[in-house]
Amino acid sequence: MLHDPNRIYIFDTTLRDGEQVPGCQLTTSEKIEIALRLEALGVDVIEAGFPVSSPGDFQSVVELSKAVTEPIICALTRANKNDIDVAADSLKYAKRPRIHTGIGASDMHIKYKFNSTREAILERGVEAVKYAKQFVEDIEFYAEDAGRADDAYLAQMVEAVIAAGATVVNIPDTNGYCLPDQYGAKIKYLMDHVSNIDKAIISVHCHNDLGLATANTIAGIQNGARQAECTINGIGERAGNTSLEEVAMILRTHQTLNKHTNINSKHFYELSGMVSRMMRMPVQPNKAIVGKNAFAHSSGIHQDGVLKHRENYEIINPEDVGIDQSAIILTARSGRHALKHHLERLGYVIDKINLDDVYDRFLTVADKKKEIRDDDLLSLMSDATERNYKEGVTVKLLQVMCGDPLIPTSMIKLDVNGTLHEAVSSGNGPVDATIKAINSILDKEISIKEFHIDAIEGGSDDVSKVNMRIQYLDKRYNGYGFSTDIVQASAKAYLDAVNKFI
Ligand code: KIV
Ligand code: ZN
Predict the structure, then answer these.
(1) How many whole angstroms from 303 Cα to the centroid of ligand 1?
(2) Residue nearest to atom 1 of ligand 1 (CA)
(3) Are 408 and 373 in contact (CB under 8 A)?
(4) Co-location of 201 and 151 in the same domain
(5) Number of other residues whose CB lies within 10 A of the CB of residue 456
(6) What digits encode the pLDDT tens for the residues 480-497?
(7) Does residue 22 sit in the same domain as residue 67?
(8) Ligand 1 atom index nearest CA of 142
(9) Whole-number Å distance between alpha carbons of 281 and 273
(10) pLDDT (tens digit per residue) in 46-105
(11) Which domain-ending residue is among 334, 369, 387?
């Protein structure tokens, strides 16, 4: 790795620490799909699995090693020869292999997990690094439960494993125990007390048991750590690991930290959805960066503020993380500004609309429904009457005659910018007759490009929804109409589109 003191290496463990969560197991081909996206995202290291744990995990590390080109492929082991032999074998096709070996460093683990002593455990750690070094050059050592380990002992262990050949030393807060200032101080202590610290990279690996994983990771980075171990969506054991997207966006947002990564954040949203779907682990809606609501504004005050100037209520541009734009969710708490924004987005010319009237009716619907969607707005606007339009074309009267043996004929009265016009036309059906009658009044070269009729419920008393796409000059306009009468719904859809340009 190049020596840039401000470059933070991103070590992704979605496929190891993340995948060991019950119910999140992936097939090898799913792992490869995710690994290739992680590569495109720009992660520096992919922890591909714990090869000794199962033949499937072993095979996944083999296949990922073949599939991935740029990132280092890392395999986890315990501090014993068999684990290391198997890991080395699984990495044989990796272009840049790394073995991640380690052992418990807290007195709790030394006593109750290994029934051993500090000296013996340190020795085992050193032996594991030396043994692994025969197979690959790049060795990462983890001092498990370092968050609760004695700092002086931890420093001794870190110094010894670096001397034995570790290129990276991971200081995991395995149980998510530390406070950010404690964890930051632990990293600083190591930076100040390990004599050969400049020979290795210190890595942070935090769990989220107290909701502090990201805060602790940043504290570690601020105190000298140069690698951050994370997962997509913060997935991982118990309450999870540090979320990769949070770390990357914190470093990007707070330029004063003067740290940067190789991450192309535009992939976040898509990758988050992919991991969530494949691992069957939903992302909580209020999850930072990638949650469904992370860029959704619903209160009137916030909506107004965002529409005036996005940065009033957004510190990240949603496009930077792969989300098209901020979502202004229309609810009963939304103001006129938000309604206007959505109507404009749907192609309505606000100057021609009776916004107060539309807003009053919008509130009536919004009181009944939690969220107002585009279809609800289109239905509200589908009436070409003066309730919606203060200028443009509105229908004053529509009568049709049809049936066997009559020739379908339509009589229509339109108000066009304040002047009344009448027309009668026949056609090959009642809708055709009505559109012809409207056209004879408008006297414009309009052609219908698409025409869809849907029944909303399905019965003969149903409301029809008509969607028309028309062309005038070289532009196309969408219109929607709703009515229990198909002819009326079609006339409404046609005029809804016409009112967008006339
Ligand atoms: O949380 C932890 O300590 C780990 C190690 C195995 C690195 O995941
Ligand atoms: Zn972990």
Answers:
(1) 43
(2) 174
(3) no
(4) yes
(5) 12
(6) 988 889 999 999 999 999
(7) yes
(8) 7
(9) 10
(10) 999 999 999 999 999 999 999 999 999 999 999 999 999 999 999 999 999 999 999 999
(11) 387
Question: Closest by alpha carbon to 102, among 56, 180, 148, 154?
Answer: 154
Q: Which ligand 1 atom is the nearest neighbour of the CA of 146?
A: 3
Report how far ligand 1's centroid is from the alpha carbon of 172 (Å): 6
Domain count, the chain: 3
Residue 360 identity: D
Rounded to 10 degrees, the C-alpha dihedral 46/108/210/248 comes to: -20
- Report pLDDT for 251: 98
Strand order in the sheet with 464-472: 446-455, 464-472, 475-483
Cβ distance 224 to 202 under 8 Å?
yes
For the CA of 100, the closest atom of ligand 1 is: 7
Task: Give the structural domain span for 106.
Answer: 9-279
Of all protein residues, the one whose alpha carbon is nearest to atom 7 of ligand 1 is 142
Token readout for 80 is 């014993």
* Distance of alpha carbon 433 from alpha carbon 395, whole angstroms: 15
d(CA 142, CA 170) in angstroms, rounded, equals 4
SS3 of 134-151: CCCCEEEEEEECHHHCCH
Pocket residues: Cβ below 6 A from ligand 1: 17, 142, 144, 170, 172, 174, 205, 207
Of 106, 52, 107, nearest to 78 (Cα)? 52
First-to-final CA distance of the chain: 63
